[in-house]
């Protein structure tokens, strides 16, 4: 497998089913990764044309943001786009609701529901376990759920509570920064008593969009709808004439910040795709150069 792999994506990732041979008590060799029905990935941090697999064979993503300080609707749309590009159903979890007032909670919930329609949304607290009943009804036997979110939003605590075990160590958050120390640096897959499978992920600082044009159309379905009426088929909706999207923003049918976040993610996705193409071309050129070099070498020998 090592010799035939074309890149990181060909190696096993969390969520994979594999076949392997036992070679001893604590040694086995994986010789095949079975076909994946879904892959959730992001742009690899610091690398322009590479992706990092977050998990495979996932049915649902629990996108978690804490209600006190982490909450950010633009980032929520980033996560949604990652899910929508890989046909993973998103569920939004607003966590730590014990730290805000009822009024604040209803403002946040309203904001989310108004901007993101058609995505289930549950508000929970690991402290009081409010919202747990609703969440447990969502977790179905045989389905795989992957928790996504920044460090310190309560992923490991939730996993510990739902499994009734202390699987993931959590560490007290420093009061001054309100950030969870980076505790879960590895991924963990747990089968809950009801038969659902939960994957904990290390907190993410960057949620870079890779090749996600399909995902963007689902996340921003309102924009995709208006785009059908743009004068030009390849309209980029940034300053083109006859753009129905810009018109909708101007007359208030599309929220401005929604549109701006769309443009930002769209450009990111386009940039990723052009980096990939550039890299491919470079690799090809390099291949050609090698071939030439070998030819010359051979000629010199003859
Ligand atoms: N007040 C309050 N604190 C919580 C809640 N959930 C988790 N915490 C605390 O927040 C801190 C971070 O929680 P973790 O569960 O470790 O967060 P995480 O998302 O797993 O963080 P990483 O492992 O860094 O990705 C811990 O001190 C928890 O006790 C909650 O619902 N309310
Ligand atoms: Zn347009």
TrEMBL record:
Q: Which domain of life is it from?
A: Bacteria
One of the record's GO molecular function terms: rRNA binding
Write down the required cofactor(s): Zn(2+)
Query: What region holds the EngC GTPase domain?
Result: 56-205
Q: Which UniProt keywords apply?
A: Cytoplasm, GTP-binding, Hydrolase, Metal-binding, Nucleotide-binding, Ribosome biogenesis, RNA-binding, rRNA-binding, Zinc
Instruction: State where it is primarily located.
Output: cytoplasm
The annotation note on the cofactor reads: Binds 1 zinc ion per subunit.
Q: Biological process GO annotation list?
A: ribosomal small subunit biogenesis
**Gene Ontology CC annotations of this record:** cytoplasm
Per UniProt, residues of the CP-type G domain are 48-207
EC number from the UniProt entry:
3.6.1.-
Record's subcellular location: Cytoplasm
| UniProt binding sites for GTP | 95-98, 149-157
Record-annotated residues binding Zn(2+)?
Answer: 230, 235, 237, 243
Task: State the protein's purpose.
Answer: One of several proteins that assist in the late maturation steps of the functional core of the 30S ribosomal subunit. Helps release RbfA from mature subunits. May play a role in the assembly of ribosomal proteins into the subunit. Circularly permuted GTPase that catalyzes slow GTP hydrolysis, GTPase activity is stimulated by the 30S ribosomal subunit.
Family per similarity comment: Belongs to the TRAFAC class YlqF/YawG GTPase family. RsgA subfamily.
Subunit relationships: Monomer. Associates with 30S ribosomal subunit, binds 16S rRNA.
HAMAP family (alphabetical):
GTPase_RsgA
Q: What is this protein called?
A: Small ribosomal subunit biogenesis GTPase RsgA
Q: Which organism is it from?
A: Geofilum rubicundum JCM 15548
Q: Coding gene?
A: rsgA
């Amino acid at each position: 497998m090592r010799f035939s792999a074309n890149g990181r994506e060909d190696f096993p990732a969390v969520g994979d089913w594999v076949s392997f041979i036992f070679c001893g008590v604590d040694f086995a060799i994986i010789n095949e990764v079975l076909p994946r029905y879904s892959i959730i990935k992001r742009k690899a941090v610091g690398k322009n044309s590479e992706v990092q697999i977050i998990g495979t064979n996932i049915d649902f993503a629990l996108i978690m943001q804490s209600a006190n300080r982490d909450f950010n609707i633009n980032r929520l749309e980033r996560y949604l786009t990652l899910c929508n590009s890989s046909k993973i159903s998103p569920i939004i979890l607003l966590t730590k609701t014990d730290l805000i007032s009822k009024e604040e909670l209803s403002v946040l919930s309203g904001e989310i529901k108004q901007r993101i329609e058609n995505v289930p949304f549950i508000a929970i607290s690991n402290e009081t376990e409010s919202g747990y009943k609703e969440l447990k009804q969502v977790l179905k036997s045989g389905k795989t759920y992957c928790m996504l979110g920044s460090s310190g939003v309560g992923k490991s605590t939730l996993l510990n509570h739902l499994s009734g075990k202390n699987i993931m160590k959590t560490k007290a958050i420093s009061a001054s920064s309100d950030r969870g120390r980076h505790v879960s640096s590895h991924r963990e897959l747990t089968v809950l008593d009801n038969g659902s499978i939960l994957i904990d992920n290390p907190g993410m600082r960057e949620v870079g969009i890779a090749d996600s044009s399909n995902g963007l159309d689902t996340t921003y379905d309102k924009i995709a709808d208006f785009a059908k009426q743009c004068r030009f088929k390849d309209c980029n909706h940034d300053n083109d004439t006859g753009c129905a999207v810009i018109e909708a923003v101007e007359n208030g049918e599309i929220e401005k910040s929604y549109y701006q976040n769309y443009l930002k993610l769209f450009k990111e996705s386009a940039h990723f795709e052009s980096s990939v193409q550039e890299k491919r071309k470079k690799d090809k050129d390099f291949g050609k150069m090698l071939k030439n070099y070998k030819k010359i070498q051979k000629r010199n020998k003859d």
